[in-house]
Amino acid sequence: MQVQEVIHNIETLPRLHEKNDLSYIKKVLAFLDNPQDKVKTIHITGTNGKGSTSYYLSNLIKKAGCKTGLFVSPYVERFNERIQLNNEQISDSDLIKGYNAISNAVTELKKADPKFNLVTFEFETALAFWYFSYKKCDYAVIEVGIGGQHDKTNVITPEVSIITTVGLDHEKIIGPTIEDIAREKSGVIKPRVPVVLGNVPDSVLDILIDKAKKESASVYLLGKDFVVSDQKNIVYQDQDEKMIFDKRPRSESYDLAVAYRVFKLLHLSLSPKKVQEALNNTQIPGRFDVIQKKPLIILDGAHNIQAITQLLNYVHELPAKKYKFLVGMMKDKDLKEVLALFNPQDQLYLTRIDYPRAAKWEDFKDAIKQKAIYDEDYKKLFDQLVNELQDDEVLVVTGSFYLVGALLNYWRHR
């Protein structure tokens, strides 16, 4: 079996079960002798910042000399990116081997229950746990797919739990209110396992604090137990130390600070210089990704209100004569609300990739259509914008990781 066939088989599995629980993945993991229990894990949820925090933290743990697994979603450029070991993507041969192991488990379980099957994310999660156990990882950083309580990764008892932030996204699945979303994300808080909270809105902070108290989980809160500022540099400080890191966008400074606070809870040995090297050299795929400096071109997978707001705040602080945005979004996102965040002087270009969920021209409101230019061919529109871009202008590609991933691939092979 070829790796592309394996990936196709995984990605064409059903997306949802009739009931939203963890019984299916628990049965498969039990059949595999519970690989998730054989590796120390850190569990990360949050509306935004999960991926950045995961990369920062895994780089710190790796720098400390530990064999470190990383499970993230979605991938930006290729499927193998989702499962990593020491910053190296899972090989095609191991991906096929893991696929066969999970498929065999499903086949055997079908003998007792012919209707038994896994959905895509369950298969991917089981594959990640199998791989980390197979490779005898010391630690694995596990990013949830959606939510927390009912997420398919929520079968672990981690060393530390993380909630980066809480905002509106996936309201139809884990909402509709921000309070509902906070309660769902609080599901990663486990009995007597410390939890680190990032830039969480005050309106829902009590929900998370109350859950932590109920579980006797100690809480480390950004802005209270540790602080971060971003001026000429990022300055992290807690009661024990002060650290200075290279300048990054404000939202990234939150994620960096959370990752470092979690790392300190693991009590791994790493000098301040090595900590700085690990964090300063971390590049998160598709997140504030500068692919050209002059003229400046940035790719960022921001795809909800909170993430777009953070991106725009950062971009509009850059010295530029014009700000151009190439945006492609999924139609199940808050299109009207997100696109209303752009300034009137921003030049807005809309496009789509060949994907069933990708928004088409008719999905946008008339008010947006009046101020935006649309082209169905994202490569053609991107080329046009790049060729026309002046040295004192900025081009930002955003709206979805699907578009960002497609254009990263296109840019590197054009």
* Spatial strand sequence of the major β-sheet: 4-3-2-5-1-6-7-8
CATH superfamily of the largest domain: Mur-like, catalytic domain
Please tally the β strands and state the result.
17
How far the N terminus sits from the C terminus, by CA atoms, comes to: 30 Å
Q: What is CATH's topology name of the largest domain?
A: UDP-N-acetylmuramoyl-L-alanine:D-glutamate ligase
Enumerate the spans where pLDDT stays under 50 for 5 or more consecutive residues. none
Oligomer: single chain
Amount of helix: 25-40%
Question: Which features characterize this protein?
Answer:
414 residues; alpha/beta; UDP-N-acetylmuramoyl-L-alanine:D-glutamate ligase; Protein-Tyrosine Phosphatase, Chain A; 2 domains; eight-stranded mixed sheet; six-stranded mixed sheet; 15 helices; Mur_ligase_cen; dihydrofolate synthase activity; ATP-binding; Mur-like_cat_sf; metal-binding
Structure description:
With 414 residues, the protein is α/β, with parallel strands linked by helices. It has 2 domains: 278 residues, 3-Layer(aba) Sandwich (UDP-N-acetylmuramoyl-L-alanine:D-glutamate ligase); 125 residues, Alpha-Beta Complex (Protein-Tyrosine Phosphatase, Chain A). Helices cover 39% and strands 17% of the residues. The chain is built from 15 helices and 17 strands. Helix 2 packs parallel to helix 5, helix 3 packs across helix 10 and helix 7 packs parallel to helix 8. The two termini are 30 Å apart. The relative contact order is 0.11.
